[in-house]
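> tool_call: predict_assembly(chains=two)
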Amino acid sequence: MSNVFSLQGQVALVTGASRGIGRAVLLELGRLGATVVGTATSAAGAADIGKAIADAGLQGAGLALDVTDAAACEAVVGDIEKRFGAVGVLVNNAGITRDNLAMRMKDEEWDAVIDTNLKAVFRMSRLVMRGMMKARNGRIVNITSVVGSAGNPGQANYAAAKAGVAGMSRALARELGSRNITVNCVAPGFIDTDMTRALPDAARDALLGNIALGRLGKPEEIAGAVAFLVSPAAAYVTGTTLHVNGGMYMS
Amino acid sequence: MENIEQRVRKIVAEQLGVNESEIKNESSFVDDLGADSLDTVELVMALEEEFECEIPDEEAEKITTVQQAIDYVNAHLKQ
């Protein structure tokens, strides 16, 4: 395979792959030839990922992981290395929301989002760096959000975490560039997932009016952007954020 | 079997892309052999692998010359 999008021979780890964007990314990277490992917070979720991988005829596994558990993260990365080889592609997708107006936001809501959406992204990235540095090759893609650039009422914690990841990605891109490791972000706009389905209808309708393409995005449309960034085709792209939002926010 | 000094020198040469003949035991990785900070981290990683040990960060920071690396390995790995 000399396809510039081929991921043949790569081991890709996607966190938060039980549904939505993470699931779509997992399957897309698998289709491009990577051995794919997806994580879910529950054992049942992990089993479901394993089944989806098998059903699609792909190589890989589903593993249970709470990304805020440092020891568990280390164990999972070690386990993957033993079973499949060193992680060459990391997609930090796992994320949560704890929306609230700032005046009402509790410290716990702030901390939970920062821990999962920012701190854990750094931790996972740090864990795979060693193998990537040795291989002189690596791809890290962090799933951020249009909210990190445009802001959104009720999401001070989420916006802070996502903007934080973007800054961190640029720092890592500079730090690791000499070892042929690229670090980029994909910033989805409003994608039709469980997370956005939780929005009230009125809020969804208001959103649609601001989207140039006039519709919500599909998880597969984020997966395509991620697939590009982790592929050989994007070898010279690092430290950037690829906005995939139907023209809702233009940078 | 090569001795520890030879093994350390070999790793330094490989990691920093320098000729072994240019490496003196008193050579500083950064000042004499052109290493940057990331190179020194990788060098420690390579030493850890070669000698199957874990070098704590606070110890790793003190290893700045070839001789210091040899001394560290000798002090910590002699059975």
